[in-house]
Design goal:
Strand content: 15-25%
Largest sheet: 8 strands, parallel
Bound molecules: N-(aminocarbonyl)-beta-alanine, zinc ion
Strand order of the largest sheet: 8-11-12-13-14-15-16-17
Radius of gyration: 21 Å
Shape: globular
Number of helices: 14
Distance between the termini: 40 Å
Length: 469
């Protein structure tokens, strides 16, 4: 079964050109010159899809999601089934989620349990990182085995004392292990011990509302942790990937490290580019709880959002992921009424990443190829999935999005597909729309209809990060 997508502009991380894409089974067979003899021959016997006036881009690769994870006394509200379906609606065809070893847990058992939750339920292809929440000799040894089995990245937490927190000794040991086995350390860089002191003091002063979350998770504590993680990575001779970076000062640390030649990389997320402490986290009553996530949404007056867009241009921010970690307001975020510390941390956005970053193309913050690079190509390379994912090229999986660059619409809880009772993006008017999505050659979204199936997504054994120099 072959399909020829013609009439569109094929966008890659390096440019945009009129081309025809031939899909054969699950793979891209060829990218052809429009009107060429080969293209004409390919059209014979193929299903021909007209992409006139639209962009043809690689399926999005979101390397930071949390489906159905236990957090703050509840579970994130998307299952692998609902969350990957929502991702597909938004033009994302690959996710890399996390298995979590909590304190006292065995890494292998935690991984097996997570595999069992995802297996057979995902609508799109998926992989896993491993969260090492208890660094000791056994978990370090396990890291070596996992790298050989296609789990090549490990998240550590400098935040959340008593839950997932790793101290400097543990971090250094894990980094040394990664230096030896080729794995990539992903770091949640916030000084959690200091944050907890400030949080307790604020609570005792009677400051209980959601915005307090943003005040106590100070930018200095993100940049301090980022700096410390970088220095530990220097000592441990390990590559480092800072997750969900939100503060200008943390970005500055990443830029300094990169300028010194280190293998330090960073991601940010749409919420840090589009939302602010003033307009969102500080909404009246309990409304701001929808925007409670860590690292926090930062102040617009301080200019973090502008700096992050700049970081996306300079490549000090190389990846946009979502950190999709949805919670409903009812019975979930509401756990923190009267105590901001009990609000489950996370925002659901797996469906909106491609559109929200495309707004940067619309406003001139980034170029069209950079959009593809940030949302598909670099995340695939960073996490050892390229060129199977993140590219429209012969031999790559036929994960393709046909994107209408001009359609205007408004995001709402009434039209999203995530399992949430609200949308942090409610009322945002966007230009650009995912029309058609192919996952390994199968059309899974078309004409406003979902055509995929839970379980069609396959598990991805990943290689080592392709950015290590
Ligand atoms: O608020 C967040 N980021 N929730 C998910 C857990 C994490 O730290 O990534
Ligand atoms: Zn984190
Ligand atoms: Zn996360």
């Amino acid at each position: 079964m072959t399909t020829l997508i013609k009439g569109g502009t094929v966008v890659s991380s390096t440019g945009a050109d009129r081309a025809e894409v031939l899909i054969d089974g699950e793979r891209i067979a060829a990218v052809l010159q429009p009107g060429s003899d080969i293209a004409a021959a390919a059209a014979r016997g193929a299903e021909v899809v007209d992409a006139s006036g639209r962009l043809v881009v690689p399926g999005g690769v979101d390397v930071h999601t949390h489906m159905e994870i236990p957090f703050g006394g509840t579970f994130s509200s998307d299952t692998f089934e609902t969350g990957t379906r929502a991702a597909a609606w938004g033009g994302t065809t690959t996710i890399v989620d996390f298995a979590t070893q909590y304190y006292g847990d065995n890494v292998r058992e935690a991984l097996d349990a997570r595999m069992a939750s995802a297996e057979g339920n995902c609508a799109i292809d998926w992989g896993l990182h491993m969260i090492i929440g208890d660094v000791h000799n056994d978990s370090l040894k396990e890291m070596d085995l996992l790298v050989n089995e296609g789990i090549t990245s490990f998240k550590l937490f400098m935040a959340y004392p008593g839950v997932l927190y790793a101290d400097d000794a543990q971090i250094l040991r894990a980094m040394q292990q990664a230096a030896g086995n080729g794995g990539l350390i992903m770091m949640h860089a916030e000084n959690g011990l200091a944050i907890d002191v400030l949080a307790e003091q604020a609570f005792e002063r009677g400051e209980t509302s959601p915005v307090t979350h943003g005040y106590v998770r100070r930018k200095e504590l993100e940049s301090e942790a980022t700096h410390r993680a970088i220095q530990l990575a220097r000592v441990g001779a390990a590559p480092l990937y800072i997750v969900h970076l939100s503060a200008s000062e943390a970005l500055e640390q990443v830029a300094i490290a990169r300028d010194s030649g280190m293998n330090v990389f960073a991601e940010t997320c749409p919420q840090y580019l589009h939302f602010s402490l003033e307009e969102h986290l500080d909404r009246p009553g309990f409304e701001g709880a929808a925007y409670v996530c860590s690292t926090p949404i930062r102040s617009r007056a301080e200019g973090h959002q502008d700096d992050l867009w700049k970081g996306l241009r300079t490549n000090d921010l190389a990846v946009v992921s979502t950190d999709h970690c949805p919670f409903c307001m009812k019975e979930q975020k509401e756990l923190g009424v009267g105590d901001f510390r009990a609000i489950p941390n996370g925002i659901g956005g797996v469906e909106h990443r491609m559109d929200m970053i495309y707004q940067g193309v619309v406003t001139g913050e980034i170029s069209l190829p950079r959009w593809v690079e940030l949302c598909a190509t670099t995340p695939a390379r960073m996490m050892g999935l390229y060129p199977r994912k993140g590219a429209i090229a012969p031999g790559s999986d036929a994960d393709i999005v046909i994107y209408d660059p001009d359609k205007q619409w408004t995001i709402s809880v009434d039209n999203h597909h995530m399992n949430m009772d609200h949308s942090a993006y409610e009322g945002i008017a966007v230009t650009g729309h995912v029309d058609t999505v192919y996952s390994r050659g199968s059309k899974i979204i078309d004409g406003g209809q979902y055509l995929g199936r839970a379980g069609d997504g396959v598990y991805l054994r990943r290689g080592l990060s392709q950015y290590l120099q």
